């Protein structure tokens, strides 16, 4: 019965967020409007990613591009779509994108109170072989929307008001937290709507999977090396963990969130700050992990406590199941 009524009583992402926001009497629907524009961007990217695959295949089959137009690279195209959707929402004042060196300041007439940091198409090196890729975003509130400065963006991740990602995989899944838990929505292409399919996601307390680019092992520090050694040869009689690494953060984090385990991009001798960007990769994913009952750690501190000094800064990160992150924290504590 319950399943039957779910099938006819569709909880769209808009309805879900409207319900959530109605708990705040001061809410004027601004967040819902902003989110709708993010959702639009995700739908566009989803359809472009699918079409890009098709265009390639048709190209291989000798068909020519019907429009005969130059194909814009997908990450550039995705960025344009998000920037335009976000500015035209009228709800943003500053945008920070992985694709743009400088932050975008929205002109006065379209200015709103939210700041959005995002990676429009993360993992784009994976497109050509059909591996899952995604969009990552985080949202801050400006203190004073008419005089917002970079100081409103250079804030710890713990002061984000919402974060999420959209994964373009075998299905298109949007995972969102507005600070009271994590929920997952799947795009029903026939409706063009994201429907709540993963209510109240909680990450398992301990996992059986570790996820890291082991090709960098030569350069790792001692705690990371020990941790991974222990995943393979556990000293406490438990079974070794499985290794899963896609090399696409959204897909690796999505699996970690649902199945448990740990995802890491450590710092190493070559790149002491690792690879991933604080504002639009580390923060949103750490926010989601904590909201789902997991943890995120940098090797020195709670990831959400980083005080970023510039918008494209990087940080090492270890995130996932509570107990697994406890272990890496203990190894770092012992090495100091
Ligand atoms: P990108 O923003 O240039 O796409 O790079 C980020 C990606 C992440 O999705 C992924 O976790 C990481 O790079 C993989 O890096 P590596 O290939 O060094 O393992
Ligand atoms: Mg990226």
Describe it.
It is found in: Cytoplasm. This is Fructose-1,6-bisphosphatase, cytosolic. Its main location: cytoplasm. Its EC number is 3.1.3.11. The chain is 33% helix and 21% strand. It contains eight helices and 13 strands. An eight-stranded mixed sheet has the order 2-1-3-4-5-6-7-8, sandwiched between helices. Strands 10-9-11-13-12 form a five-stranded mixed sheet, sandwiched between helices. Strand 5 (162-168) and strand 6 form a beta hairpin. The longest helix is centred in the first third of the chain and has 31 residues, at 30-60. It is globular and about 60 Å long. The N and C termini lie far apart (56 Å). The relative contact order is 0.13. The model is unreliable at 65-70 (pLDDT under 50). The protein binds 2,5-anhydro-1,6-di-O-phosphono-D-mannitol and magnesium ion. 2,5-anhydro-1,6-di-O-phosphono-D-mannitol binds next to strand 3 and helix 6.
